[in-house]
Amino acid sequence: MIPLIQEQHEFEVTADGPSLIEITATIASWLDAMPARDGVLTVFLRHATGWLTIQDNASGSVRADLLAALSQLNPNNSVYGSNDGSAGDIPAPIRAMLTSVSLTIPVIDGSMAVGPSQEVYLIEPRKRSTPRAVLLHYIGSRG
Q1: Computed over its alpha carbons, how large is the radius of gyration of the chain?
Q2: Domain count of the chain?
Q3: Helix then strand then coil, % of the chain, to nearest 5
Q4: What are the backbone angles phi and psi of residue 42, rounded to the nearest 5°?
Q5: What is the pLDDT of residues 80-128, one digit of tens each?
Q6: Cα 143 from Cα 134, distance rounded (Å)
Q7: pTM here?
Q8: Using an 8 Å Cβ cutoff, are 36 and 132 in contact?
Q9: How far is CA 32 from CA 13, 73, 81, in A?
Q10: Which structural domain range is residue 85 located in?
Q11: DSSP assignment of 37-95, as one string?
Q12: What is the CATH number of the domain that holds 89?
């Protein structure tokens, strides 16, 4: 039986306003620095008002298109029962249903098994600068 290892790491990302922040390189560097071989990586965002996604990065307009789509599906000026004065967070519960705070990514030969033009993004919807904690957890064989 192949012995399994578990490793975890946390890093912080800060955006200046609404954006999709590519975090693939940070995750890949962490995997490279440890003895990961074949297993599963969980990426978890410790916030309800930001989200994670894996998207195509072949076109430079993808990030702007995704932010525009989220805004059109659920505008910032929408009126809901939860409008409690938390500026910038009013559409967060609706957008959270459309996105996710966690991703599960296979790891093969020490690398994330994503497509050649796929990237991992943190989606930041807020207008103000907000530090975001991203937790990584790997379980699998040792490289």
Answers
A1: 17
A2: 1
A3: 20, 45, 35
A4: -105, 130
A5: 555 454 554 556 666 666 778 999 999 999 999 999 999 999 998 888 8
A6: 24
A7: 0.85
A8: no
A9: 20, 38, 46
A10: 4-142
A11: EEEEEEEEES-SS-EEEEEE-SSTTHHHHHHHHHHHHS-TT---TT-SS-TT-TTHHHH
A12: 2.60.120.460
CA 55 to CA 111: how far, in whole Å? 17
Q: How far is CA 2 from CA 38, 72, 108, 121, 140, in A?
A: 11, 49, 15, 32, 9
C-beta atoms surrounding 116 within 10 Å: 7
d(CA 131, CA 77): 24
The residue with tokens 């609706």 is 94
Contact (CB, 8 A) for 127 and 17: yes
H or E stretch at 125: none
**135 CB contacts (<8 Å, ≥6 apart)?**
8, 9, 10, 42, 43, 44, 45, 46
Return the pLDDT at 56.
86
State the pLDDT at residue 122.
Answer: 94
Any idea what the Cα angle at residue 53 is, between residues 87 and 41, rounded to 5°?
125
